[in-house]
Structures are given as C-alpha cells and as structure tokens.
Amino acid sequence: MIKHLAAASLLLSAACLAIGPAAAADPGITDSEILIGDVEPLTGPPALLGVAASIGHKIAIAEANAAGGINGRKIKYVLEDDGYVTARTIQGVKKVIDVDKVFAMLGISGSGQSIAVMPVLEKSGIPTVIDVAPVKFLWEPPRKNVFVVGQSYEEGIIHLVNFLADKNPGKKWGLITQDDDYGITVRDGFDSVVKAKKLNVVYSGNYKKGQQDFSSDMLQLKDSGAEVFLAGGIIAENIAMTKELEKLNIKPVTGIFWPGRIEPVLKLMGPAGDRIYAVDYVEPFAGTAGKAFLEKAKPLVSEAEFKGINRYTMTGYAAARVLIAAIERCGKQPTWACTISELEKTKNVETGVMAPISFGPGVRFSNQKLQIMQADAATLSFKPVE
Questions:
Q1: 58, 75, 300, 378: which has the fewest C-beta neighbours closer than 10 Å?
Q2: H/E stretch holding 358
Q3: CA-to-CA distance for 128 and 118, rounded, in angstroms?
Q4: Could you tell me the fold of the domain covering 33-151+289-369?
Q5: For the residues 225-245, what does the mean pLDDT come to?
Q6: pTM over the 0.90 mark
Q7: How far apart are CA 251 and CA 268, in angstroms?
Q8: How far from each other are the two terminal CA atoms of the chain, in whole angstroms?
C-alpha cells in the first residue's frame, strides 16, 4: 500500500513538474473588464491634439461597449495628462502600466514624447498602438509589441513639397521648423525634395519649441522674397506665423503639415488661413466619409467632446478599432502575446476614416495613403484637391 502511495505521489509530482506552475494572467483583464491606457497632452496649447485623440479612442470604445464589449468584457479607458512635457509622458506611461495595470496602450502624446517613452514600452512588453505621432524611430527597427497607425512625417512632407513644387515651378522657397525631433523630421523631408528638384530656398529658419512671437522670423521671410512657404509649426505656431504674414501684407503659397490641419486653426487664422495647403492621411470632415464619422460619433460622446473633435479624433478612432479587433480575435482568454500576434495579422481593416489598415510579419507601420487638401476659410474646412 505504501509503495502504491509513494508511486502515485511520484507520478503526481512528475506531472506537476511537467505542467509547471500556473501561468500568471496578464494585467489589465478581469472577468468583466479590460483596461486600455493612454497618455496625452490634455492641457496647454497641444491639448487640441491630445484631447481630440482621446475622444477618438472613447468613440471606438463606446461603440465596442455598446455592442457587448470584447467577448463580453467591457472596456475601461485609463487616461493620463502629460501636458506635452516629456518627463511627464514617461511618468504617465509608467503609472498606467505599473499602477493602473492596463492590458494595452493607445495614443501617446507627441513625437519626442513617443521616442522618449519607447524603452519603457519595450521593456514592459505591453501591446501598444501609437496613433498621434508617426515618426520612423517608432517602427524602424520593428519593435515586437509596438504598432503605429499613420504615415511618416518624412513621407508627408515629401508629398506636400512635391505637390507645391510641381504647382509653382521656378518659385523661391522659405521654410521654418521647430528645434526638436519633429522639426528635424520635417526638415529632412523638405531637404530631400530640395535636392531632387533643385528648389531655390531663400529662407531657412528655426524656432524654439513654445515660441509665441514670430514677427522677426516672418519679416526675414518677407525680406528673402520667398514665394512658397512651408510653415513647420504645429498649432499655435502656424496661427502666429500666418497672422504675422497678414500684418506684413504678403501671402506666399503656404503649406502646413497635418499636426496643424484642424478646423479650429482656420477659425483662429481667419482670412489669413484661406487657401493654405495641407497634407494628411485621414479624411476631411467636409467629405462624405468625414460627415458619416461625425454622425456616428455624436450619440457616443458628450456635447463638449463632440465640439473637440478634429483630425486627431479620426487617427485615435482608427487605432482603437484595430487594437480592439485584435484583442477580440484572441477569444475569451486574451493575452498580451496573442494580442501582439493578432495585431501583426491585421489586414485591410476598414475604419471609414482613412485607407484600410494593415500590418504584417516584421511590419509595425500601417503606411497610410496621403492626400492634399486646401483650406476654405468661408466654411472653416479643408477640401481635397487631388
């Protein structure tokens, strides 16, 4: 009898060793809830960007929750404000991962902030979909757990400058950029077209992040005789530049980048913003897809949030849709590993706000199709021109 018990005990021990200890569940998931985290600038001038992106996430989450959540689990959104300050971005991401213990991450502030926080994201291994600041560093080389929805700043600038160069042959050019990673990226894209098309650049300026007074910079632009101007600001900077150009009574053909392609900017620019060109990969609200998105969004957010919708709401919505779909494909017991695997398998996902989204083995960037738009000050909207 003792021999039989001993043998049974040995067999049980062997079985336990073979199976190993029970795997710890990934954080951020309970029987009834899944937590998704985000860190955005919700205060300060860039709040127009961060608040709008978070509204996009909220719309996708509200849409999913109204349909029963993710396989019966409701999604809870955990949002932190970084004030567009890199140190606070890092602090915020650590908090939502280590303290709030979210299951996945969305969004994440600006370009410099996303770059700075990448070591934290990689070390944690948490499934992450970035939708605010698509800079190449985030996907080159590919990072196992980090995916980026959008188009690279370089490609966006190249597309815009090529369009403006073809439309304005032989003209004199001016450029101004911000003194950070964002500005370097804009300048690199611009310089590649300058070299390829042998553009005549008569003014090249650089401004300090947070600068408010552009009177001296725009006077130099005027004195240079520039006829085509790439305004490399974000939101407040582009507004200030165009208002200064208006005071100086000059109106060069002006191009802006998608960080500033939001309707409130046109309202603040007034007549000075009329007919400005922009490049983007999300649909304009003046088009059929944009109008359909607004109709969908209205019952899912508060009145104040609805008023805060802009192009970043679309990028946030698209990224959240992709992430939610990937988690859902993992079935009743989603894990980080499965979610990352399913994100990689994302193929031609339609969101209604941009071209279909795809990733792939070793591909962590969705490489969205670009289009040129032009501002109409009378209707405070951007309309496609190509």
A1: 378
A2: none
A3: 10
A4: Rossmann fold (3.40.50)
A5: 95
A6: no
A7: 17
A8: 86
